[in-house]
Amino acid sequence: MKEIHPEMLKQLKSYYLPGTRVILIKMDDPYTKLKPGEKGTVTGVDDIGTIHVNWDCGSCLGVAFGEDMCQKIEG
What we know:
Elements: H1 6-15, E1 21-26, E2 39-45, E3 51-55, E4 69-72
Antiparallel strand pairs: 1-2, 1-4, 2-3
């Protein structure tokens, strides 16, 4: 797990507000069934930078800072 700088954490929390829609870019978890392209809704960002998401497929696995990637869906 990578440590997050306080300013980066502040930016993540202001960018990925609860209710924000995201799309998964990559996830480095060999046990998940989530695939790139999955969409979901952010429920929050915790103090280590994990973006918590309720995925449309039913999963609620978080996007780990420095390991996984998601992108905000604009519009």
